[in-house]
Structure formats: C-alpha cells, structure tokens
TrEMBL record:
PANTHER family: 40S RIBOSOMAL PROTEIN S29, SMALL RIBOSOMAL SUBUNIT PROTEIN US14Z_US14Y_US14X. Belongs to the universal ribosomal protein uS14 family. It holds the Pfam family Ribosomal_S14. This is 40S ribosomal protein S29. It comes from Chenopodium quinoa (Quinoa). Keywords: Ribonucleoprotein, Ribosomal protein. GO terms for cellular component: cytosolic small ribosomal subunit.
Length: 78
C-alpha cells in the first residue's frame, strides 16, 4: 500500500474536504448557512436571483430615527 492508497482510504463524509460548491465545485469558502452550500464568489454573483437584498445600514438607521421621532416606534423597551 502506497501513500496515496492510505491517504484516500476512507471516504470523506465530514469536515471541510467533504463539502464543495454546488454551482462550480470549488471546495473553498463555502457558505453553509441556510443550506446554501455555495462558495462566496458564486453567492455574490447569484445573490439577487436567490432572493437576497443588500441593505444600506445608514438609510435603515435614519428611517428608525424618523419613526422614533414621530412616536411610531418605541425604542424604550416597554
């Protein structure tokens, strides 16, 4: 038994070597959250098609402040 036979003797069912991108097959930088199982490059290119939207943090913060100022949003925790 040579080195390659011993090294690949067991199937990889767990760990980083067992996962690859379902789009391109890349085994690196896999996003597993929400069952995506795609690499970050494929996620960035397909995010809008999947249904993800990018929020602008500053605009969200300003809209929360406006709602709080008008009294429509209670930030006091009561």
């Amino acid at each position: 038994m040579g080195h390659s036979n011993i090294w690949n003797a067991h199937p990889k069912n767990y760990g980083p070597g067992s996962r690859a991108c379902r789009v391109c097959g890349n085994p690196h930088a896999i996003i597993r959250k929400y069952g995506l199982m795609c690499c970050r490059q494929c996620f960035r290119s397909n995010a809008k098609e999947i249904g993800f939207i990018k929020h602008d943090i500053l605009n969200c913060f300003i809209s929360i402040l406006i709602l709080a100022w008008d009294g429509e949003l209670c930030l006091c925790g009561v």
